[in-house]
């Protein structure tokens, strides 16, 4: 099973691809790599090994010019904060890196009143699959109440990331998240993807663990409000 470095690599590649797919941009400042994600309003630094004022200052100025709402720094937990505090960054949530093998995941369980839809379309990072859990009855027929994304990594064959897992609050704890994960595992296995990684929060840990994901380690993020 791949380690934290592989998880960070796929996350890095996902940010890069997402910026490209959504009209953002990727750039570097003094050995710090950044992605502007206009759909989220975020400017994100992708796993710098050193954090300096020389890297932060021009990037934050560019973020303000682009209209970024937040600036975030994703790092390995072993990387020192450097000058983050002096720029106003605050220590925030930790990505819980998890991994599993899709061929060991359980078969898809059907959820009453829900249809699972899979698509590949423009506006998604290249090669990605979008999964949606859609209502099959009522006035909201066809509305997606759950979503997630499967992104094949670019550097390591067979390695892919699970991103943007979300279920609307009123539809949680009905098995929708589980069914989407199982469908995602089915598609990944058919596509020849041999390992899945994701970053979890404590609230999502039990869901992922129930489907065979194992905790590899934890990272760290820092965030600054720009406007």
What does this structure look like?
With 227 residues, this protein is of the alpha+beta class. The protein has two domains: 4-96 and 220-225, Aminopeptidase; 99-216, Gcn5-related N-acetyltransferase (GNAT) (Aminopeptidase, 3-Layer(aba) Sandwich), CATH 3.40.630.30. 23% of the residues lie in helices and 35% in strands. It is built from four helices and twelve strands, in the order αβββαβββββββαβαβ. It has helices at residues 4-21, 53-66, 176-190, 205-210; strands spanning 25-29, 32-37, 42-46, 70-76, 90-91, 96-100, 114-119, 129-135, 144-152, 159-167, 195-200, 214-225. Strands 1, 2, 3, 4, 5, 6, 7, 8, 9, 10, 11 and 12 form a twelve-stranded mixed sheet that branches. A hairpin with a 2-residue loop joins strand 1 and strand 2 (32-37). It is globular and about 55 Å long. It starts with a helix and ends with a strand. The mean pLDDT is 96.
Task: Give a topology summary.
Elements: H1 4-21, E1 25-29, E2 32-37, E3 42-46, H2 53-66, E4 70-76, E5 90-91, E6 96-100, E7 114-119, E8 129-135, E9 144-152, E10 159-167, H3 176-190, E11 195-200, H4 205-210, E12 214-225
- Secondary structure: number of strands: 12
Percent strand = 25-35%
Would you identify the regions where 5 or more consecutive residues have pLDDT less than 50?
Answer: none
Instruction: Give the tally of structural domains.
Output: 2
Keyphrases for this structure?
single chain; 227 residues; alpha+beta; Aminopeptidase; 2 domains; twelve-stranded mixed β-sheet; 4 helices
What is shown here, in short?
With 227 residues, the protein is an alpha+beta fold.
């Amino acid at each position: 099973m791949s380690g934290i470095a592989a998880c960070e690599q796929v996350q890095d590649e996902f940010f890069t691809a997402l910026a490209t797919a959504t009209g953002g941009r990727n750039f570097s400042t003094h050995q710090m790599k950044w992605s502007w994600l206009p759909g989220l309003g975020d400017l994100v630094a992708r796993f710098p090994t050193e954090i300096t004022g020389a890297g932060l200052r021009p990037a934050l100025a560019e973020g303000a010019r682009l209209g970024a709402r937040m600036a975030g720094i994703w790092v390995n937990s072993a990387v020192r904060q450097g000058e983050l505090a002096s720029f106003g960054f605050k220590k925030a949530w930790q990505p819980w890196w998890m991994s599993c093998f899709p061929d060991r995941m359980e078969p898809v369980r059907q959820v009453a009143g829900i249809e699972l839809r899979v698509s590949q379309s423009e506006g998604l990072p290249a090669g990605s699959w979008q999964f949606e859990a859609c209502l099959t009855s009522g006035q909201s027929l066809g509305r997606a109440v759950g979503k997630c994304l499967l992104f094949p990594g670019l550097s390591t064959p067979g390695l892919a990331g699970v991103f943007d897992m979300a279920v609307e609050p009123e539809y949680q704890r009905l098995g929708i998240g589980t069914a989407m994960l199982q469908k995602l595992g089915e598609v990944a296995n058919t596509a020849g993807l041999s390992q899945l990684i994701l970053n979890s929060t404590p609230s999502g840990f039990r869901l992922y663990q129930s489907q065979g994901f194992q905790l590899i380690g934890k990272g760290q993020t820092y965030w600054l409000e720009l406007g």
